[in-house]
Design goal:
The structure is a single chain. By secondary structure, the chain is mainly α. The chain is 52% helix and 6% strand. The chain has one domain (3-248). The strands form four sheets. It has a two-stranded antiparallel sheet with strand order 1-2. The chain has a two-stranded antiparallel sheet with strand order 3-4.
């Protein structure tokens, strides 16, 4: 079976059995958590409420797994484990229910125990399955998004418990974020000296927007909850400047782009990811006060409200998928 046929077979199975596939986890309606912006709050910036209520599958230790269907099947996904833990952490703060504390710490323990060395000797969370991006990511592969979301959870576990194992793991997980892709890390510095955190490690890099922003929040949490050193502050500041200076490139005139892949056809975000971009930009504005994030969000909301823009984005996304996947 060709890779393309495997891809479409798996996608068909996932969408026709959405409640039992990985989509039941990923496609939660993106929502801001207003309490995260209260003074002294340590809650995560998005609610991840539905993720905290994820029905499984889970392994024997209560760690979530995702069923990708088809030739990939059930797998651990470090990003999903981190986001499940963050959702449970928010529920624990809201409900003061120890069952959620236990769940968020189980995810934190998995992250602390499952860092692996990559081929450059850096500690990363590996995905042990092939993943079809427009370039195939061969198992095992690592991700700047996983490093950032893992940091966000480990920072809260350390703050909540004081257990040094979470700090030690977060220190190791941070290093790839400040290390260039060419040296085994997830940072890419472009010709204009902009600093990017790459969700997928590809050549050339593709600068996936949602992954960059989510990873950045982990850097901020590590800075505020674990250690505030010059390297962390520099990564945060440089990355914010990169986002400010380049956010316009993700505007294709009628919709937001998923990435800046170096291919002949633009890659519009799906409806879900466009909605996620709006929430992420709102949060970036709240965290930084930078007007460019608010003005971009307001513009993209107008795209979302337009049936013509929605239809155009859907058609062009479908063409992109058929062309490159």
């Amino acid at each position: 079976m060709t890779n393309k046929l495997k891809y479409y077979t798996r996608i068909f199975s996932s969408y026709t059995n959405k409640d039992k596939s990985s989509l039941s986890f990923w496609h939660e309606e993106p929502k801001i958590n207003p309490k995260a912006f209260d003074s002294n709050s340590d809650e995560f910036y998005m609610t991840f409420h539905d993720k905290a209520l994820y029905k499984g599958p889970f392994d024997d230790n209560g760690v979530p797994m995702l069923d990708y269907r088809g030739d990939i099947g059930k797998q651990y996904n470090p990003i999903a484990i981190a986001q499940y833990g963050l959702g449970c952490f928010n529920e624990y703060r809201k409900e003061s229910d120890n069952k959620y504390k236990e769940k968020f710490l189980k995810s934190s323990d998995w992250l602390a125990d499952n860092l692996e060395f990559n081929n450059k000797g850096l500690s990363v969370w590996m995905h042990h399955f092939d993943w079809p991006y427009f370039q195939l990511l061969k198992s095992p592969w690592y991700s700047g998004l996983a490093q950032g979301q893992g940091l966000a959870l480990l920072a809260r576990a350390f703050k909540e418990t004081g257990d040094v194992k979470y700090k030690n793991a977060s220190d190791k997980a941070f290093t790839p974020l400040i290390t260039d892709v060419s040296n085994g890390g997830t940072r890419y510095i472009d010709s204009k000296t902009s600093w990017w955190i790459e969700e997928y490690i590809t050549d050339p890099p593709t600068h996936i927007l949602n992954g960059f922003i989510w990873a950045l929040w982990g850097v901020r949490d590590y800075k505020n909850m674990v250690t505030d050193n010059e390297q962390v502050a520099e990564l945060w500041d440089k990355s914010i400047n990169t986002l400010k200076q380049n956010i316009y490139k993700f505007d294709c005139g009628y919709w937001s782009l998923y990435d800046l892949a170096h291919v002949s056809r633009e890659n519009p975000a799906s409806t879900f990811y466009h909605s996620l971009h709006l929430v992420q930009l709102d949060i970036m504005y709240r965290l930084t006060g930078e007007e460019v994030f608010k003005s971009t969000m307001d513009k993209w909301k107008k795209y979302e409200a337009s049936s013509i823009c929605r239809r155009r984005a859907f058609i062009n996304k479908a063409i992109f998928k058929l062309t490159y996947y």
